[in-house]
Amino acid sequence: xxxxxxxxxxxxxxxxxxxxxxxxxxxxxxxxxxxxxxxxxxxxxxxxxxxxxxxxxxxxxxxxxxxxxxxxxxxxxxxxxxxxxxxxxxxxxxxxxxxxxxxxxxxxxxxxxxxxxxxxxxxxxxxxxxxxxxxxxxxxxxxxxxxx
Length: 148
Description:
Blueprint: H1 2-19, E1 24-25, H2 28-35, E2 43-46, E3 55-62, E4 65-72, E5 77-83, E6 85-88, E7 91-97, E8 101-103, H3 109-114, E9 118-127, E10 130-135, E11 138-144
């Protein structure tokens, strides 16, 4: 009788697993599931800059991947890359290999050296309205950006 009970429990277990949030996301829908927020903002503006030129971060879906673009206000592209965003404990993490990451003219030489072999960007919600983004040699606090 036990094998029969185990077989009957399999569909229930697989249904429960199907309802769990994904561990990695390659679409906006999956990212919002991963973040546990169906309205997770896709545009963020830096509040921790000391030069009066906030970094703007946008997350878009492109060719089956999530694209992160970092643009320094009043300057130009700082960095961009496409890949997947995965859950790592309480944080989300975008790992971009050297081939997936493109540094722009706004990236200074220190950033270029730090990110020469690729980067892991951690995205951690501090509150519903604040996101901390960090990578080797750089970090910032962000709030949802108003649409332009």
